[in-house]
Specification:
Number of helices: 3
Largest sheet: 6 strands, antiparallel
Structural class: mainly beta
CATH superfamily of the largest domain: Galactose-binding domain-like
Bound molecules: 2-acetamido-2-deoxy-beta-D-glucopyranose, calcium ion
Strand content: over 45%
CATH class of the largest domain: Mainly Beta
Shape: globular
Number of strands: 30
Radius of gyration: 24 Å
Oligomer: single chain
CATH topology of the largest domain: Jelly Rolls
């Protein structure tokens, strides 16, 4: 079905959907050097600050950082209500994470946003995921690549992100590093489409579409959860397949996670999408826990996980994997309130040629970009297949209209003038040429 989108020189309410504005995109090249870290405040980063790990660069890494941190304040020119942070996290070598619950806070990777802890993860290099991984670089012991995807509420026009770790002082023995670091923020109202919404209602808790190796067993905590006490222990998994998804560019997956009983900081749950790690999560000991189910241990209940995954295929396989090491009567995992939404593909505006510079994605009618603080000229535009943009020369749907059906990553001439004019960005061709 064809959808029409209109670029207008007016401020309209219909500023819709999946408007993921890219706040930052860093460490995405195969090879980068310490210059890429110059805008970060680094503590206890040694030597070159960047490691070449068998052909690809990571910020941090073996011999660079053990206990240490990288901190940066991001500023936007519009008001935020939340950000999506996602990146690849590498745990190199001897990640001996210990017991949690106030006893042993050693060997954890943590994320703080505006000085509030929002995440932590440990690992153990002798078992399950870490132990079974291959050696990527550093010492000859296994290294583990995982991924973090967080949705964090923030307000105002700036926020500070700190990635930090406490794993001792020897980065030759254990270290961490990151790649492909993105922060997106969503602007305007969200008209993404919910394609799946299940395990919400205890009277109709249908798990028949889930393939599990624990026979789809349901427990109470005290609400119903798929998995849980005496059911979902080490290596338990639950897989949900989706097909015939509408065209989309992101999947938003959310679920309510239940970490039952004495799960340690070296235990986690891993969410895979199409066989790749989309997010890994540990029991949040930095938040209050209470005993509500299973054994006498405190439980981390109703942890709402919201994950954003770039995704284009019309089918998806989502797998929830329990990475624990003690019996399910001692530590277990379950979940409920599972939902998946897709964001439809939207046109993307770029501030530089060849899909470079800042980018801004929108669906529906686009308002005056000045109103949201955008002043950079648009030099490229991506138009998804089957979508047609209509540009009006004057405001109020007046004047000549032009239709744009194809992407153009080097706007010039009439099209360049029109698009920028429609968005109230004052440009002329001479200016563009001079800026080159
Ligand atoms: C994980 O941490 C717990 C608590 O400290 C510890 O008893 C256990 O040995 C660790 N896992 C492994 C496989 O070493
Ligand atoms: C961040 O925003 C606050 C107001 O919300 C302002 O007072 C502060 O100066 C800003 N800091 C930076 C680094 O932009
Ligand atoms: C963009 O197009 C102009 C001609 O309109 C050309 O001079 C310029 O080299 C092109 N730039 C790139 C990066 O392709
Ligand atoms: Ca290694
Ligand atoms: Ca319990
Ligand atoms: Ca354990």
């Amino acid at each position: 079905m064809q959808k029409g989108y209109i670029l207008l020189a007016l401020l309209l309410v219909g500023f819709a959907s999946a408007n993921y504005y890219e706040v930052t995109k860093e460490f995405t090249l195969n090879n980068f050097d310490a210059k890429s870290l110059s805008s970060w405040n680094l503590v206890n980063f040694n030597g070159n600050q960047v490691t070449n790990c068998n052909g690809f660069s990571v910020a941090g890494g073996p011999n660079v950082v053990a206990s240490g941190s990288m901190t940066k304040t991001f500023t936007t020119d519009y008001d935020l209500n939340g950000v999506e942070i996602f990146f690849d996290l590498y745990l190199f070598d001897q990640w001996n994470s210990g017991w949690e619950g106030g006893r042993d806070q050693k060997n954890l990777f943590k994320i703080f946003v505006n000085n509030q802890q929002v995440y932590q993860l440990g690992s153990d290099y002798t078992r399950q995921l870490h132990g079974a991984s291959s050696n990527l670089c550093g010492a000859s012991t296994p290294d583990r690549q995982t991924r973090v995807s967080l949705s964090v509420p923030v307000t105002g026009r700036n926020f500070t992100v700190q990635l930090t770790s406490v794993i001792g002082s020897n980065p030759a023995a254990a270290s961490w590093g990151i790649r492909n670091f993105y922060i997106l923020s969503q602007q305007g109202y969200d008209n993404s489409q919910v394609v799946l919404n299940e395990l919400f209602d205890d009277n109709n808790f249908d798990v028949s579409k889930w393939e599990t190796n624990f026979k789809g067993a349901i427990t109470q905590c005290p609400a119903k959860i798929l998995g849980g006490f005496n059911v979902a222990g080490p290596g338990a998994y639950a897989t949900r397949k989706l097909s015939n998804l509408p065209a989309h560019s992101f999947l938003s997956i959310s679920l309510s996670a239940y970490f039952v009983d004495s799960i340690d900081s070296n235990d986690s749950v891993v969410i895979y999408v199409d066989g790749r790690v989309a997010h890994e999560h540990s029991k949040a000991y930095y938040q209050e826990n209470i005993n509500v189910c299973g054994g006498d241990w405190h439980d981390g209940v109703d942890n709402e996980l919201n994950i954003l995954v770039p995704h284009f295929s019309s089918s998806a396989e989502i797998k929830i994997y329990v990475n624990t090491d003690q019996a399910a009567g001692d530590e277990s995992f379950g979940f409920r309130e599972f939902s998946v939404a897709v964001s439809t593909p939207c046109p993307i505006l770029y501030t530089d040629v060849n899909q470079g510079g800042k980018q801004f994605s929108f669906c529906g009618n686009l308002p005056d970009l000045h109103a949201i603080g955008w002043t950079s000229p648009i030099k490229g535009i991506y138009v998804p297949k089957g979508i047609e943009l209509t540009v009006y020369q004057d405001s109020n749907y007046n004047g000549k209209k032009y239709s744009i059906k194809k992407s153009n990553f080097n706007l010039s001439g009439n099209e360049y003038q029109l698009i920028n004019k429609a968005l109230k960005i004052d440009v002329n061709e001479q200016k563009l040429r001079r800026n080159k």
